[in-house]
Design a protein that fits this description.
Blueprint: E1 7-16, H1 21-34, H2 42-52, E2 56-58, E3 63-65, E4 78-91, E5 99-109, H3 113-126, H4 130-138, H5 142-152
Parallel strand pairs: 1-4, 3-5
Antiparallel strand pairs: 2-3, 4-5
Pfam families: PTS_EIIA_2
Domain PTS EIIA type-2: 5-152
Protein name: PTS galactitol transporter subunit IIA
Length: 157
């Protein structure tokens, strides 16, 4: 499955500075609503889902979070990429009490629920690869980042 079309140059922040994950979710949700990618309900839904089903992932090389919510809140599929200037605490996936300091966030907006598991798996696999992390971490330019991510998530089908 090819996921390269889910990345948009104007849906990424490569030097973001937020005080809390709540502030980040509010900012991103407002931007996504304004660009007609999500319903108004997206903000409350993603904040609530993150509280109940944490998405922090500690990999060998980088701590990431992959927040997502139900497809009914999404109008157009996307992946919103955020590289944080200062890490934010997220609960680790499948825990209720283990916090990790996340410095990269991929917010997923999926329309087809059957593709969500495959996309999550692909993202997790990429963030376990040292060469991917090294290249991803070195990029601070949106044009280079969109090219890199689209190549990395393009299927060879």
């Amino acid at each position: 499955m090819s996921y390269d079309k889910l990345f948009y140059k104007d849906l990424m922040m490569l030097n973001a500075d937020f005080s809390t994950s709540q502030q980040m979710f509010e900012f991103v949700s407002n931007e996504l609503v304004a660009r007609d990618f999500v319903e108004q309900s997206f903000k409350a839904s993603i904040i609530n889902r993150e509280k109940n089903f944490p998405t922090g992932l500690a990999t060998e090389y980088l701590q990431i979070a992959i927040p997502h919510t139900d497809v009914v809140h999404v109008k157009k599929p996307f992946i919103y990429v955020i590289k944080l200037e200062k890490s934010l605490p997220f609960l680790q996936m499948a825990t209720t009490d283990k916090w990790i300091d996340v410095n990269t966030v991929f917010i997923l907006g999926i329309k087809n629920p059957s593709k969500q598991v495959g996309l999550l798996s692909t993202i997790m696999d990429k963030f376990r690869e040292k060469i991917f992390i090294d290249n991803f971490s070195a990029i601070s330019n949106q044009d280079q980042m969109i090219d890199f991510l689209q190549k990395q998530f393009r299927s060879e089908e």
